[in-house]
Amino acid sequence: MEKISRKNWALIWVLGMAGQICWNIENSWFNTFVYRKIAPDPSIVAWMVGVSAVVSTFCTFLIGTASDRLGRRRPFIAFGYILWGVFTIGFGVTEFLPKDPLWLAATCVVLADAVMSFFGSMGNDGAFNPWTTDISSAGNRGKVGGALAVMPVFATIFGAIVSGIIIDALDFFAFFTIMGGMVIAVGVLCLFTLRDAPGLAPNRDPRGFWHQFAAVFDYKIVGRNRELFWVFLVMMVYFIGFNVYFPYITVYFTDNLGMDYTLTGVVQGAGLLAASVLTIPAARFIDRGKCGPVIAAAVGCNLLGLLGVSFSTAFVPLLIGVFGAGAGYILVLQALTAWIKNLYPEDQRGQFEGVKQLFFVCVPMIVGPAIATPVINAFGVEKIVNGVAGMVPGNSLFLISGLVTLLALLPLLPAARMEKARTGAAAQP
Hints:
Oligomer: single chain
Number of helices: 17
Shape: globular
CATH superfamily: MFS general substrate transporter like domains
């Protein structure tokens, strides 16, 4: 088993947390920013989420291919993070654009988010994620997967509590400036501390970059990696359901239930923090090749949690519901992360991060909000937000999300059978 050095563990946590905080800002606070500073219109959020998902996926394919060909992840990580921070600050500038006509302001917000997402995917998805695969092995990827799974949780806790306090005190532009500056600093740090895995070698297709870029779309790859693509389908269905509610959860707590940003952060943060302790026992099952059962239990936990959030308005029941939904999310992400890393073709890890993004980000972040928009418009609550009338999410959004995530059990069945056959065969003397 390849041991991960202390320095690399530190970099995994620093880079992972900085990246996840930035993604959390985009996935939660950008949407809240749109409701408060642009217009309370779920269709703007849907366009912003969908366009950024397409851009992120394309960038991950592009940078994944480039880093595989060069046999280097470091420059893409460092400069990707630096530019990610710069354009996070740039997104905040859209607050000062005129709101008439609204379509122009909405277009600028969507484009600003897309540019920021490109560089975020360059640093995080296209280079950092394959770097974590390069420096790990099958024997410790449950631990790596656990770390990468709890990072979004810690980032959400930070994003919910600390971000809420900063926004309540200083408003959005100062908040985006502070967070962007933090990501820039992490990128600069990587220039001096991060090193590529010693065994990483260039993988150059002699027919050129674009031929190598397109090679991953060959349908024969699906046949050679059947278990991996079943796992990708599990990921896609689960995260479609997740993206039905998650982009709007802060809007729901603040503009429907009437909480301030700080209390919203406490509800989300405390529930998720409690749920994160489950990654420790889960890692033992995952490292023994039990990803399928872990995911099945997590989907059930997620459904119960979303039902709890849907039918609750008081603090404690909401906290319990967030705990259930958060536990399901954490364990699904932990198990999927380790499972997928163990199945990646060794010479195409960067490119397959792009394939993963197609199932993890692109399709879910287009389809999820596309489901949510008519649900909010039909079953939401009409409110005046910052002087503008619009529709805010209702509790039905969480019911729909729970039902969609339950469908992830269908592709999980064949994926779990293949996992059991593969790990059983590997255990044979």
